[in-house]
């Protein structure tokens, strides 16, 4: 559990959160605690976000976009209003607070085993293409906060990167500067999910993809959203018979088949893939050093940080932009 969250969370907070939606707290079990606290209540999901991570302005903007996507009937998570008819509520704890959002629990399966293959990759691409195309028409409500990829809380990591021979802070800043120089146009830059991975979508009986967890949504290049999907696909165990280079080609060809049915993206954008993958390593590595108790890491946390550190050192030379050839 994130440090500030663990300081202020208690069973009383969960009870108050459930009461705001007319739900019974004892029906909910904690299923995720990396940053937000996610509770499963059968047909409902409660998400609690401490104010040290994200304030209500950020969450209001996130929910406004989800509501737009719901109106356009895209397969994404649905919001449940509180007893007061609000899209979110607050539970105050001392001088801080938790923002509470309730969602309809999605029915589907995690894309593991036999599901992790070409059909799901193509359908995932189709959904991401839909998101990018439809969101070009989205107009944020008056007063909504707009953030870009280098302004989100996860990007503020320089003070938390280890200070050693690797010179991580300087490298992170250099990569950030290179990305900031990528041209921005209406057809390549807009509001994106920014965290699509196999823990943030489920697959239904027809292998269609339903997406959730929009909290990192921000403005960035569409190719960045695609790079992030690839980034997490590479963390997933490789299918039998694939090494990393062949999997990258197979995944991107399958993904882009679906994507191109819904949205057009110039193939020259793929020249930035490696740079964006490298940036994601730094982003996650630094952010975890910020929110995890580094002095008391679990075995799995140590293993994951070590894996990220190795990836930063090795880079993504096995990724090329000629995957469609």
CATH class of the largest domain: Alpha Beta
CATH topology of the largest domain: Aminoglycoside 3'-phosphotransferase, Chain: A, domain 2
**Using only CA atoms, what is the Rg?**
20 Å
How many domains, in number, for the residues? 2
Q: How far apart are the termini?
A: 45 Å
Instruction: Kindly state the percentage of residues in helix.
Output: 40-55%
Largest sheet: 6 strands, antiparallel
Beta-strand content bin:
5-15%
Give me the strand/helix succession. HHEEEHEEEHHEEEEHHHH
Q: Can you tell me the residue ranges where pLDDT is under 50 for at least 5 consecutive residues?
A: none
Report on this model:
The protein is α+β, with helices and mostly antiparallel strands. It has 2 domains: 3-104, Phosphorylase Kinase, domain 1 (2-Layer Sandwich), CATH 3.30.200; 113-314, Aminoglycoside 3'-phosphotransferase, Chain: A, domain 2 (Alpha-Beta Complex). The protein has 9 helices and 10 strands. The protein has helices at 3-8, 11-20, 56-71, 118-135, 168-180, 222-235, 244-262, 273-291, 299-314; strands spanning 29-32, 37-40, 44-50, 79-80, 89-93, 96-104, 189-192, 201-203, 209-211, 218-221. Strands 1, 2, 3, 4, 5 and 6 form a 6-stranded antiparallel sheet that branches. β2 (37-40) and β3 form a beta hairpin. The model has no long low-confidence stretch (mean pLDDT 94).
């Amino acid at each position: 559990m994130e440090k500030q969250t663990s300081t202020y969370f208690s069973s009383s907070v969960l009870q108050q959160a459930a009461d705001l939606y007319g739900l019974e707290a004892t029906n909910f079990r904690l299923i995720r605690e990396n940053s937000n606290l996610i509770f499963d209540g059968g047909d409902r999901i409660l998400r609690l976000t401490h104010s040290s991570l994200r304030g209500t302005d950020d969450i209001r903007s996130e929910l406004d976009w989800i509501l737009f996507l719901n109106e356009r009937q895209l397969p994404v998570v649905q919001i449940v209003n509180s007893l007061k008819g609000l899209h979110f509520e607050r539970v105050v704890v001392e001088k801080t607070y938790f923002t509470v959002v309730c969602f309809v629990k999605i029915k589907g399966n995690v894309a593991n085993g036999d599901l992790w293959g070409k059909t799901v990759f193509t359908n995932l691409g189709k959904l991401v293409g839909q998101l990018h195309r439809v969101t070009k028409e989205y107009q944020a409500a008056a007063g909504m906060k707009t953030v870009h990829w280098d302004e989100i809380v996860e990007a503020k990591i320089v003070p938390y990167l280890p200070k050693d021979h690797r010179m991580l802070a300087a490298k992170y800043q250099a990569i950030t500067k290179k990305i900031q120089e990528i041209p921005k146009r209406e057809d390549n830059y807009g509001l994106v999910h920014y965290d699509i991975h196999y823990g943030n979508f489920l697959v239904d009986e027809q292998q269609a993809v339903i997406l959730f967890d929009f909290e990192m949504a921000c403005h960035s290049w569409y190719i960045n959203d695609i790079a992030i999907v690839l980034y997490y696909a590479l963390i997933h165990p490789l299918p039998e018979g694939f090494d990393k280079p062949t999997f990258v080609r197979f995944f991107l060809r399958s993904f882009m088949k679906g994507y191109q049915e819904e949205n057009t993206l110039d193939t020259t954008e793929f020249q930035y893939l490696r740079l964006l993958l490298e940036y994601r390593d730094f982003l996650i590595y630094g952010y975890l050093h910020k929110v995890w108790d580094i002095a008391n890491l679990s075995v799995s946390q140590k293993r994951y940080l070590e894996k990220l550190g190795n990836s930063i050192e090795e880079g993504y030379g096995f990724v090329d932009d000629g995957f469609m050839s």
